[in-house]
Design goal:
The chain is an alpha/beta fold and 156 residues long. It has one domain (5-153): Leucine Aminopeptidase, subunit E, domain 1. It contains 4 helices and 6 strands. It has helices at residues 37-46, 49-57, 92-108, 128-139, and strands spanning 5-9, 18-23, 65-68, 77-82, 113-117, 147-153. The protein has a 6-stranded mixed β-sheet with strand order 1-6-5-2-4-3. The protein is globular, with a radius of gyration of 14 Å.
């Protein structure tokens, strides 16, 4: 069981080895999407390399996670989770499974620290409070050596 540290701020300002990007199912080419939320911030600060890599990976099942490089960002990797359906909505199941899928990659990669956004709270339309509670519940079933941070986005 892991108890994440919940902080307010910007995901891209966290001092961790890897970050999680709340992504979609990768059905629509990344370059057709309007940059917004975490993905938009990554594109602005980290460049397009992670998204070019994502494009080559093809469709991502709902609730699954894939890993790419971090582009120009100072992280070892970015883990992208498919938290929203084709209707651009998150569900309790998709949020929970995103946590489990991302943490499986964290453990496989032997990362010692990871920062998550609140998956499903933005474009997914689930709402920050509800999505955060689902994530915290999912972490109760996770075994890891990594320090986990959940970042509630707040402009500086």
């Amino acid at each position: 069981m892991v108890t994440p540290l919940v902080v307010e701020g910007d995901l891209l300002d966290q001092n961790v080895e890897v970050i999680v990007n709340a992504w979609n199912r990768n059905i629509i080419p990344w370059w057709l999407l309007v940059p917004q939320g975490v993905s938009g911030a990554i594109k602005r600060r980290g460049g397009y390399a992670p998204f070019r890599e994502l494009g080559r990976l093809g469709a991502i099942p709902l609730g699954s996670a894939v890993q790419t490089s971090a582009g120009r960002l100072a992280y070892r990797a970015i883990i992208h989770v498919a938290g929203i359906s084709m209707l651009w909505r998150a569900s309790e199941k998709s949020i929970r499974q995103c946590v489990l899928s991302a943490m499986a990659l964290v453990n496989t990669g032997s990362y010692m620290s990871v920062a998550f956004p609140v998956v499903g709270a933005g474009t997914g339309g689930f709402g920050e409070s509800g999505a955060l509670q689902i994530m915290l519940g999912a972490f109760e079933t996770v075994e890891t050596k990594a320090a986990v941070t959940i970042v509630r986005y707040r402009k500086a």
